[in-house]
Amino acid sequence: MQQYVMDRPAKTVRIVLRRDISPVGDLPAGDPEELFLAYGWTEEMKKFRPLRDYTGLFKEFAELKPQTSAVLRFVSDYGFLGCTSLANIEAPGRKPSPSQVESLAAWSAHRWLLGTTLELWQHALDENEEGVSKLMSVNNGIVSLVEHHLAANPTIPHIDLLPRSMSSPFGSGSKDAPGKEAMIGAAKWLVNGTVNRALDRFVRLRLDVQQEPTHDTESESISLEPASLLGVVWLQFALYIAEHKNYQRCSHCNRWYEVQTKLARRDKTYCGVNCRSRAYRARKQQQEDE
After folding, report:
1. Which residues are CB-neighbours of 287 under 8 A, at least 6 positions away?
2. Which residues contact 177 (CB under 8 A, 6 or more apart)?
3. What is the DSSP letter of 42?
4. Alpha-carbon span 116 to 168, nearest angstrom
5. CA distances from 103 to 20, 68, 76, 106 (A)
6. Do 121 and 165 form a contact (C-beta atoms < 8 A)?
7. Type and span of the H or E element at 6
8. Among 53, 40, 84, 14, which residue's Cα sits nearest to residue 232?
9. What is the model's pLDDT at position 157?
10. Of residues 133 and 2, more confidently modeled
11. Where in the chain are the domains?
12. How far apart are the two ends of the chain, measured CA to CA in Å?
């Protein structure tokens, strides 16, 4: 699973308006002023292994600021989410060029959904009833996200992953406000349902049969493989919940990374060898400058 390989653009990603796009495939109609991310269909790509190299990527995505510059940096580092369409980009004095495009509104919606679900899970783990009640409500056994969050994010209802409401086994179904235990249980129930919907859509179960070229043997295994970058972040989130993983920020690059508590040194502060080497060189250069 950690060997899963993805592509990311080797050049700068552009921002284009919908009115400058001629759809080639299925691109729903919308506001002509809507913004899209775009990079050329034939552009050079770089390969990387997100599950191995960026173990805390789901937390990076959940905390992504709703700013175009922040999204551009994220795309340059990790690539598109996977909800892409093919379009021709119109430019004055140039022939339309085929490009892959992704709506910034879709980015905002998916980031909000993952970020809210992660925040809800953390409140539930901390048994923070106040924090839970700010994100969801339970009425007559039905769990729902509170409406002011949906109103503040008008693109969210168009994301079909979002369970606007779910029947919960917690609470008696009465009209009275549920107690703390019921609220915490319902929050975990809602997170569970949202994550499972994401896994159903963005992660595949695969059979791998490998024949050894120099031996008359073969090995068979079942593995989970993300279908896109969205699959990567939701799979990481699911593993974080199921395996009780711990994370901290790298003291050099500031990215989140998984802490292997049984194997890591207590003083480990870097996400990997590269950051440790860069930090060492930076300290050495600083000493020489002084």
Report:
1. none
2. none
3. T
4. 19
5. 13, 11, 16, 5
6. no
7. strand 6-9
8. 53
9. 45
10. 133
11. 6-52+64-105, 245-282
12. 46
Say which amino acid occupies 239: L
Residue appearing with tokens 């093919």: 86
Contact 89, 38 (CB under 8 A): yes
Where helices occur in the chain by DSSP H, the ranges are 50-53, 57-62, 68-78, 104-125, 129-135, 147-152, 180-202, 229-242, 273-289
Average pLDDT over residues 228-250: 95
Write the single-letter amino acid at 247: Y
Q: Compute φ and ψ for 169, nearest 5 degrees.
A: -80, 0
pLDDT digits 0-9 by tens, 61-93: 999 998 888 999 999 889 999 888 888 887 767
CA dihedral 74, 80, 85, 86 (to 10 degrees): 90
Q: Which residues contact 140 (CB under 8 A, 6 or more apart)?
A: 173, 174, 175
Determine the length of the chain: 290
Over residues 192-211, the mean pLDDT reads 88
Angle subtended by helix axes 104-125 and 180-202, to nearest 10:
140
Model's pTM, two decimal places? 0.84
> What does the radius of gyration of the chain's CA atoms come to, in whole angstroms?
22
**What distance lies between CA 280 and its chain's CA centroid?**
31
Contacts of 207 (CB under 8 A, 6+ apart): 220, 221, 222
Lowest-confidence segment of 12-16, 214-218, 251-255 by average pLDDT? 214-218
Q: Taking residues 139-162, report their average pLDDT.
A: 60
Orientation angle between helical segments 229-242 and 180-202, nearest 10 degrees = 140
Residue labelled with tokens 């992953």: 161
* Burial of residue 222 (number of CB atoms within 10 Å: 0-12, 13-18, 19+): exposed
